[in-house]
Structure formats: C-alpha cells, structure tokens
Design a protein that fits this description.
Elements lengths: L2 E4 L5 E6 L1 H14 L10 H18 L4 E6 L4 H7 L6 E10 H19 L9 H20 L2 H11 L12 H11 L3 H16 L3 H17 L19
C-alpha cells in the first residue's frame, strides 16, 4: 500500500510504496486526469498532476528515494515455511512539497467528479477508489502535523460535490512553494493549514497573481499555462 509521512524539516511529504503500489498510482493518475484537451479548462491543472506522475516514474526507475521495510519474515517463520527469503522489502518513493501536495489532492477531487460524469458505475470504478485511497493516505499524514480543527477544515476544503479548479492559475502554486521553502522548520509546520486555505480560496494574493499571468500571456501571445516565473527550485532541498 501507499504510505505518506512528513519529512523531518516539514518541507513536505515522503510518499512510498512497493513497485506495484507506485506503478498503480502512476497509471491511475494518468487515467483519471484524462487525455490532452479532454478537459479544456483543466490543462494547467492536469499538467501539474502529470508533473507529480513524472516524480513517481523516476521513483520507479530508482532515481528518487527508497527504504527497506520489514516484511514479517524472520528465522522462525522461514523454518516454518521451509524457505529462505529476504527479511525486508524495498519500497521506492519520492518527496513532494506541502503546497504542491495539498494542491494535488484538492484538484484530484475535481477530476474524480469529472470522471463520474462519463462512466456508468462510478461507485465501482477502481481508479476512483485508488485516488480516494491516496488522498486518505495524505490525510492521515496531515493528522500528525496540524490540529484537529485545522484537519477538519482542510477536509472540508477538499470535499465538494462541485468542481472549482477549472482555469486555475497554477503559477500561484510555485509562489506558495517558494514562500513555504523560505520559512523556518517551525513556521512551516504552523503554516500548512493556512497554505491549504490559500489554495482553496480565491483571495487577493491569488487574484493579483492571476492578473499578472494573464497580462504576461497577452504580452507574449501564449497560453497562460506557459507563463513561468523566473524562480528555480533549489537543487538540494532540506526535506
């Protein structure tokens, strides 16, 4: 199964699973976000999820993180089964910044609602169940780093019976990522709930970024999703 844990410096989460777990999540997310131009108002949001899939693919290739996890086998167990086996399984994984992860689990709720409109029996859809399971894993991690009140508030932000991330200005997530990384370890921990609120609500800061991005897209005569801020993520994040 997929498991999610917060990183030591509270910069984000570590997502781990065995090869089949991560591969299933990778394939599920690719399917759930749909094909290119299938959801015309979600192109930028879709690419953001696919960026997370890119990290999952590199985890599968052994280019990210890995851990050895106890599998329940010991000397006595091996004698009972009359076989010699490894005592640990290898889990592969990757790190994701908290603002990025919060955005992904929120926008996945939109994609699930869009998906339910095109499949006959959504309650029996394996990919829908897999997405909810992944969101729940992140939720369990959230429980450990925010207060109970904040946790319930974040769940309310994620749980809706309508879509609201269409046309979202994804550059805002880069700004939140940058501001979050610039915080101290202690301030990051206290800011997770606030970051979730900023992502989910259309506040003044978001509107200002949106206006700036729209203006730049007109100046360069290109889609808004192609506008990038002149800011690079550090090569070595102290997770």
């Amino acid at each position: 199964m997929i498991f999610v844990k917060h990183t030591p410096n509270h910069a984000g989460v570590a997502i781990y699973g065995d090869y089949l777990d991560i591969e299933e999540l990778y394939n599920t997310l690719h399917d759930v976000v749909g094909k290119e131009n299938e959801y015309t108002s979600y192109q930028g949001v879709r690419m953001r999820v696919l960026g997370f899939c890119y990290e999952l693919r590199h985890a599968l290739m052994g280019n990210r993180e890995f851990e050895y996890v106890d599998n329940g086998m010991d000397e006595n167990r091996m004698k009972e089964l009359a076989m010699i086996t490894p005592k640990k399984n290898i889990y592969v994984g990757t790190h994701v910044l908290w603002p990025e992860m919060l955005f992904i689990i929120m926008c996945l709720s939109d994609f699930i609602l869009l998906r339910q409109k095109k499949i006959k029996y959504p309650e029996w859809d394996a990919n829908t169940a897999a997405v909810h399971k992944f969101q729940a894993a992140v939720g369990e991690c959230l429980k450990q780093v925010v207060t109970e009140t904040s946790y319930k508030r974040i769940l309310n932000m994620i749980t809706h019976d309508y879509t609201w991330f269409y046309g979202y200005t994804i550059q805002y997530i880069d700004i939140l990522n940058g501001k979050f990384l610039a915080m101290s370890k202690e301030k990051r921990l206290k800011s997770i709930a606030t970051i979730a609120k900023r992502i989910a609500e259309i506040g003044d800061e978001y509107r200002a970024v949106r206006e700036e991005v729209l203006e730049e897209s007109l100046n360069y005569n290109c889609p808004v999703d192609e506008i990038q801020y002149d800011w690079d993520y550090p090569d070595n994040i102290q997770w």
